[in-house]
Write a structure and sequence with these properties.
Number of strands: 3
Largest sheet: 3 strands, mixed
Radius of gyration: 23 Å
Structural class: mainly alpha
Helix content: over 70%
Shape: globular
Length: 278
Amino acid sequence: MMKEPAAAEIFGDGTPQPGAAVPPTQRARPRRGGAIGAALAFLLFKAKSLLVLLKALPAAKFLVTSLSMLAMVWVEAQRTGVWFAVGFVLMILVHELGHGYAMKRRGVEAGWPVFIPFIGAMISMKNAPRDRDTEADIAYGGPLAGTLVALLAAVVGLALGSRPFLALAYTGFFLNLFNLTPISPLDGGRVAQAFSRRAWIFGAVLLGALFLWTHAPQLLLIALLALPRLFSRAGAQAEAERDALEPAQQRAWAIRYFGLASFLGAALYVSGSLLHRV
């Protein structure tokens, strides 16, 4: 999954409103409250200083990526075992590096991958793609790289008769096919907009059906992330102002999109059948 070149910070303020009545218990112990406030301010200052220092380190980005990877491996290992978790996270890493390679090839500055347990991973774009063709190419790079590494796992699994490798392949095919669902912020939404402005309607229906089937909370998060883009008038106007691709380019992207989705669907079926035999 790619992160758009935008950021927002949310600040919370729990300060009592001016003129609010102060309970007698708080008036009786002003020194203790002041001491706690001073201690919190000191800790906040130290944490802020540590964050500034971390950002200043040359290897800070590598450190964040590595630590987030380890955290995700630890979380997944609780459910699937260590070795499967390592393979699973590495497959996600290859997916994100596919986005990163496409960004570099298209002249878009890329950030470092960041892993989020229970959700997946993302890689940020430092500057916006110049057109829909570039955005689609960057989005397509992730599922394409993820499909190749899943195919490699399938080949190894067949050669060695290894059920864990076949399970990894099956998981990889499923995740990359899911990522091709044509609704933003999933990769498929960014690819499909290159040849169809209304593909998100099918994507929204498919996402809703998957949620009713699986009850996975991650699907709700994806839906919430998609709502601003779908219903924002400003976003719709911005999309309309961007030049549409030439018909030949639209056909090419439709072929690439449906070709990869069809291959992943077939690979998912075959790898699932092989898992029952091994």
